[in-house]
Amino acid sequence: MSRSNHWGHTERKPDVSYDSTADPAQILAAAAPATGLAGSLAPFPGTPGMSLAERFALNPFLMAPMAGVTDAAYRMMARAGGAAGCYTEMVAVAGLHYDGAKTWRLVLPQEPEPDICVQLFGSKPDQFREAAALVQERLGERLVLIDVNMACPVPKVTRKGEGSALLDDPDRAAQIVRACLAEAHVPVTCKIRKGRRTGEPEVAPEFAKALEAAGASAVAVHGRTASQLYRGEADWGTVERVAQAVRIPVIGSGDVKTPEAAARMLRQTGASAVMVARGSYGNPWLFGNARRILAGEEPVVPTPDQRLAAFACHVRLLDATHSHLARARSLAGWFLKGMPNASYWRDKAMHCSTVADYLDLADQVERQGDGSRVS
Q1: Alpha-helical regions (H) of the chain
Q2: pTM for this one?
Q3: pLDDT beyond 60 at 75
Q4: What distance in Å separates the CA atoms of residue 308 and residue 305, rounded to the nearest whole number?
Q5: What pLDDT shows up at residue 258?
Q6: How many Cβ atoms from other residues are within 10 Å of residue 259's Cβ?
Q7: Average pLDDT of the residues in 351-375
Q8: At residue 11, does pLDDT exceed 60?
Q9: What share of the chain is helix, strand, coil (3-state, %, to 5)?
Q10: Active site residues
Q11: Residue 86 has what DSSP assignment?
C-alpha cells in the first residue's frame, strides 16, 4: 500500500535490492524516468573534422577535470545531465611513462562513455610527447582532446614545476604544447589561471597568446590566481581579456555554480565555452538547464525525489565501475543539501559502507519528507 508523503509524492515501500550484475548502461536507462536525466549518453557534439569553436557552438557546457571527483561514474552523470564533454581527473605523464595501472585507470573511459577529454600534468616535454602518443594509441576515436594542466595550485604539484608553476615559465609551457602536437591527432588545449600570485600583474592574456602561437587549439581560463587556491571570487574579467587577446576559443572557468551563471559567463566574457566544476556537485541537471537558459527557456528544477533517485543511480554507477564506495559519502552531502534534516542524513552517510547502506539511506530520506528543518 502507498500513501502520500510530506513532499506530496507517493511514498513507495523501501526497496534496497540491487542487481550487482547490471552494467552502467542498464543502470542509466533504468534510472532515467525517475531522475529526469538522459538514459543514454550522447557523444561530444559535432565531428572530429570540425573546429573546437564549431563544436562548442553546438553545446558549450563542459564538465571540468577535478582530482578525486571526476571518475567514470561522475562523468556519466554529467553527460546524462547534458554536459557536452567530460574530462578525466589530472593524469600524471610520469605515471604513463612508467605504465602505472592506477594512472591508466584514470585515463580509460568505461562503457557506456562515448568519448573523453584527457587532462595531463607534468613538466617534462619529452614525457608529454610520450604520453600523447600512448593515450592516442589506447583511446583511438574515443579521444576528443588532450588538455594540459597549467592551473593546479596544489603545492605538491607546483613544487615540481607542474600545474600553475608553468605560469612562471611560458617557454617550457610552449614546449609542452608542441611536444603533445608532435604525436597527437586531436586538438591540444591548456587550462591556466589568472596568474601565479595575487598582487602581481595578470599574466593570463600574454600567456594564452604564447600557447596559441605554440599551436594550442583552445585555452581554459580560471579567473583566480594560484595563490588564491579556491578562495575569494573568480575574476571573469580575466576570461574576457583572454578572449580578446587570442583568436582560439576560450573556455571560462571559476564560480560557475548555477546554470544561470554558466549562461551569464558566456554572454559577459565572450568565451566560447564554459567549464563547470564545483557547481556540478550533486547537480548533473545544471548542464541541460544552462542550455535551456541560453535558448531563452525556463530551467527545470529537479524535485527532491529526482535528486534522491539520482543519488541512488550515482551510487550504483560507482559500484558498477569498481570505484571506491567511500566517494558516495561526499555524494550524499551534495545531493541531500537543502533537504529536511540534511545534516542528520549526511552524518548517517558517513557510516555507510555498502551499496545497500546508501540505497537504504535514500529510502529513509524519501520516507521522512517532513519538511520540518533544512540544514
Answers
A1: 24-35, 52-58, 72-80, 93-97, 101-107, 125-139, 155-158, 170-181, 204-214, 236-245, 259-269, 286-294, 304-320, 327-335, 342-349, 355-368
A2: 0.92
A3: yes
A4: 5
A5: 98
A6: 25
A7: 81
A8: no
A9: 45, 15, 40
A10: 152
A11: B
